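Re-run with default settings, no changes from the original entry. Doing this only to confirm the output is reproducible before filing.
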Amino acid sequence: MKPISFVFLGLSITSSWGNGHATTYRGLLRRLAQRGHSVLFLERDLWFYAENRDLPSPPYGRTELYRGLDDLRARFAGAVRDADLVVVGSYVPDGAEVGAWVTETARGKTAFYDIDTPVTLKQIERGGAGYLSPALIPRYDLYLSFTGGPTLERLERRHGAKRARALYCSVDPDEYFPERAPPRWDLGYLGTYSADRQPTLDRLLVAPARRWGRGRFVVAGPQYPADLGWPTNVDRTDHVPPGDHRGFYGAQRFTLNVTRRDMIEAGYSPSVRLFEAAACGVPVISDDWPGLDELFEPGKEILVARSPEEVLHLLRELPERERIAIGQRARERVLARHTAAHRAEALERYTRELLDEQDAPERPGDRGGTGDDDVDVASRPGEEVRET
């Protein structure tokens, strides 16, 4: 098939500091390039990413920095005009203006990639986000969402999206795989500070640490307030670069997944850390939310906890053989359904559908996909053949 030319305008691909967007874009663009497609990533040159660039020149596709809207328009109008698909991501600086310019300029198809869908929709319903306005949603040909399930229908019916598709986060198995080493911690957590996540982190990690003085715990991630009190058996580190994630997960007996409040309310919003840890064969203890059981089988591939007592029971009582088996089964599920290659294949399919259909109207109820191996579309509740 003819290669597709993609242009992405995203928050950051060069720096993973304080955001999960970078690892998502890196895996996706790497696999698109490997499939023979032309890929250009445009990133606003922001000082806080410039000081923390852990991949300044991605070795796949082409990455360019721009200084602002005028620079973007002057240097890259031709690339945007001629691309088969131009994708604007959530939290792009001045993203609403960027999106308006893209949808006016592009001769091909356009898409919005929402890596923060529930947060975005809350802001839209209050009048708009800085990176997306209510009026802009129907102008995109495709709305790609980190959230599946009922949110896809909501995007189309309530907000006027022409076509909403799930494009979940993923993991690159070349970077995330088991490392056998003596564990340093019984339970760890990796994530940027968020006020709405902190109560769950307190309940499922900090409280167990206070009650089990012999246990070993770790919390990694930036922006935690300096006045937070941590038990002496909880190690803290501000940042773990993506290249060190595998070793970080491998040093834990269990890892904790904590979901933001908006994502819990929407459901079907897996965190990239969930897939990363599972790919490393580390058993995950997670809070509960709608759609989790369509990604992993609770009790067999993932462990769900709601209280400090349940966490401590798992840490201290689960047989070692079963702990290892849960991690292995989770890894097998990720490799079968949730790699960056799966997401690149899905995006390629969505794009070809748009290009093939040109301006033909979408059939009512058509949400894309051609069979049970379609891992990213139609994450509808109750559809048992879907696993994302």
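The longest helix spans residues 320-337. Confidence is low (pLDDT under 50) at residues 365-388.
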